[in-house]
Write a structure and sequence with these properties.
Radius of gyration: 22 Å
Structural class: alpha/beta
Number of helices: 10
Mean pLDDT: 78
Low-confidence stretches: 5-14, 159-190
Helix content: 25-40%
Strand content: 5-15%
Order of helices and strands: EEHEHEEHEHEHEHEHHHH
CATH architecture of the largest domain: 3-Layer(aba) Sandwich
Length: 324
């Protein structure tokens, strides 16, 4: 059986429901969700309270951008302290380089799987039924400083549009960007809006994806559920994130849109310059009233639907043997 625990951290996006039937019936697995920065002290507290002798431990760090290499030395001490067999511990992360630092590592694009899990419960978008009365939409749960700056640059660019392009359905004033709501904790973000927008792409043609991370450098590109939402909704998208995001999407088998607009912003390392380039791209799409053919949107949806991002994880879990 598989027990999912979050002793020190909040619940995550992917529910791992599909994994429960994969683990052999005579095998016990404890799945630990980590959301904040991986901390050796927290792991020490965790291992202190759980049976590590007769269970496999799957440490899920797929929500982490940082590598786990910085705590490897501390991890080895914890293993020794609690007599934990390294063969019983699997580290599941979104960073392929982590395999260099622990004995058992599984690379998993968890957020791709989490959006894929939504497909059976949602109505599939019928592209021929769309009305497309607005160009861009963007929803996020957290009011990050860089997102506000991006929105301000977009609003400022409106005044530069020639009157000849003053079509109400194309202007950036139709761009809808929702930050946090006022109210109690349950309404301070817009995640709930995503859950009810089954037909958002009937109104909006493109999604501006503002990824979690924008500034700084990283040895690997970290993707969240935000970038996979428009794929599920069969929408075009422009991505505001760290450089290399579009390249990683293509590496995962999806198509991007360099045949229809300039995507060179994905190659710009300086965050300030990259932000301006993203705004330039949005303006180009609006002024030129750019449209995408349905076939590329259908293609991305079906790649998402059939993707095997969790295949390595499934293979490992289905072949586990009882602990000795």
């Amino acid at each position: 059986m598989i027990n999912v625990i979050t002793p020190l951290w909040r619940a995550i996006y992917a529910q791992q429901d599909h994994l429960k039937d994969i683990v052999p019936s005579n095998v016990n697995v404890i799945w630990v969700n980590l959301e904040d920065a991986v901390c050796a002290q927290d792991l020490d507290q965790l291992f202190r309270w759980y049976n590590t002798k007769n269970n496999y431990l799957f440490i899920d760090c797929t929500k982490e951008d940082s590598t786990i290499q910085w705590i490897v030395d501390d991890i080895s001490k914890i293993y020794k302290k609690y007599r934990i067999k390294e063969d019983h511990v699997y580290w599941v992360t979104g960073n392929p380089y982590d395999k260099n630092y622990v004995k058992h590592h599984i690379f998993w694009e968890m957020f791709l799987t989490s959006v894929k899990e939504m497909i059976p419960g949602r109505s599939e978008i019928v592209l021929s039924s769309r009305t497309l009365i607005k160009k861009f939409v963007c929803y996020n749960g957290r009011n990050r400083k860089w997102r506000r700056e991006l929105y301000d640059r977009i609003k400022q660019r409106r005044i530069e549009l020639s009157p000849s392009y003053s079509k109400p359905e194309l202007l950036l004033q139709e761009f809808e960007y929702v930050f946090n709501f006022d109210g109690d904790d349950e309404t301070k973000n817009t995640h709930f809006k995503w859950n009810v927008f089954n037909d958002i792409s009937y109104d909006y043609e493109f999604w501006l994806v503002t990824e979690t991370l924008f500034d700084g450098d990283s040895e690997h590109v970290f993707l969240t559920e935000k970038i996979f939402k428009p794929l599920l909704l069969k929408m075009g998208f422009v991505v505001a994130g760290r450089s290399g995001v579009l390249k990683k999407l293509r590496d995962l088998g999806f198509k991007t849109f360099s045949d229809y607009w300039d995507e060179s912003y994905d190659n710009i390392s300086d965050s300030n310059t990259r932000m301006d380039a993203v705004v330039d791209t949005i303006e180009y799409i609006i002024i030129n009233d750019v449209h995408l053919p349905d076939d590329i949107l259908e293609y991305n949806f079906h790649v998402l639907k059939e993707h095997t991002a969790d295949q390595e994880l499934i293979n490992v879990m289905s072949n586990l043997k009882p602990c000795k």
